[in-house]
Task: inverse folding
């Protein structure tokens, strides 16, 4: 892959600002803020292994400050950064029951964008030193600027996203995002604290040989998914496929985007709508997957066309290389659609 040497995320944002549909610099500043908050969170996530030395969440640290759980820390870091800079008019987070309205200093907020965020996805992986991520989704508000945001600003179908992305805190820390003009990935040089364009124009291979699903739940899966998993395991020219499941949506999708593969989190008997959240997990990942040439569905509907009805609603999710997702859908369609 020919990568233009040394292009930083900051330079990239400035150079590509004119691509944004309503270019006023606001979206650029917003992505810049996310980049900064991600550095703060990255620093903290990197210290997670020292928890026995510097103390558990709930303890008091050496400076007399209370230790926070990392997902709470990440939530505060993103919310504080976006709030202090008055860069958005509202935020919804996996960690907050209700959306947050951001007041401007003069009591009025003229910003156009709302952000929906999962500050630390896959946080159960932290204790065992496995990659975690942050996922974000950005919409233009539908209510008039200057008025307080309302629920309808957040309950927009995913195809209206103006930008979405994730941060992966892995062997390297990366920001991968899209403003609707393809997907680009930037890797953090921790020595300099600078993100460099490392993965320009990321695109999902049309097909692949990796399937990612928590097979421990197999007995509870819909019959269509069970049949598709059997198909993945059959001995054929290009099969059986390889099974890879990290249990961290960002990491599993990131790997599949580079290598080609499918990620599945279906509905189960226990969780009739699956586990993943539509607004700050599935929508932004589906936006990125589509921008990278892949597909994302709930088995019957395009994820980005689902009209949300509640902030924390869940949805089954199948996303990845287009031809693999189409194949999985074809198995789902052999059985009646769930309600
Ligand atoms: P979380 O938001 O509580 O971290 O849950 C979301 C995560 C995804 O990152 C991951 O793909 C999935 O849950 C794993 O769930 P499971 O352990 O049921 O396979
Ligand atoms: Mg999550």
Result:
């Amino acid at each position: 892959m020919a990568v233009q040497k040394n292009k930083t995320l900051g330079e990239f944002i400035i150079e590509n600002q004119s691509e944004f549909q309503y270019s006023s610099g606001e979206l650029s500043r917003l992505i810049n803020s996310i980049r900064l908050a991600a550095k703060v969170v990255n620093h903290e996530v990197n210290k997670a292994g020292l928890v026995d030395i510097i103390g558990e969440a709930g303890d008091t640290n050496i400076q007399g400050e209370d230790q926070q759980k990392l997902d709470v820390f990440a939530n505060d870091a993103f919310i504080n950064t976006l709030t202090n800079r008055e860069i958005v008019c509202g935020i919804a987070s996996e960690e907050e029951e209700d959306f947050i309205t951001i007041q401007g200093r003069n009591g009025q907020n003229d910003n156009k964008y709302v952000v929906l965020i999962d500050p630390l996805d896959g946080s159960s992986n932290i204790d065992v030193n496995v990659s975690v991520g942050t996922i974000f989704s950005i919409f233009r508000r539908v209510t008039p600027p200057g008025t307080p945001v309302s629920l309808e600003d957040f309950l927009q179908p995913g195809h209206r996203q103006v930008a979405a992305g994730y941060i992966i805190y892995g062997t390297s820390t990366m920001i991968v995002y899209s403003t609707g003009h393809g997907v680009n990935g930037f890797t953090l040089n921790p020595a300099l604290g600078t993100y460099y364009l490392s993965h320009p124009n990321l695109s999902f291979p049309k097909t692949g040989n990796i399937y990612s699903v928590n097979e421990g739940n197999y007995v509870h899966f819909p019959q269509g998914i069970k049949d598709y998993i059997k198909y993945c395991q059959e001995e054929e020219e290009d099969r059986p496929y390889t099974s890879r499941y990290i249990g961290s949506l960002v990491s599993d999708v990131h790997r599949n985007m580079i290598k080609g593969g499918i990620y599945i989190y279906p509905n189960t008997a226990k969780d009739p709508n699956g586990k993943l959240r539509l607004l700050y997990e599935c929508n932004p990942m589906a936006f990125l997957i589509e921008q990278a040439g892949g597909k994302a569905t709930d088995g019957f509907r395009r994820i980005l066309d689902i009209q949300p009805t509640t902030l924390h609603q869940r949805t089954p999710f199948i996303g990845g290389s287009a031809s693999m997702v189409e194949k999985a859908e074809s198995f789902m369609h052999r059985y009646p659609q769930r309600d």
Remarks:
- The first helix runs from residue 9 to 15.
- Residues 94, 118, 121, 281 surround magnesium ion (ligand 2) (CB under 6 Å).
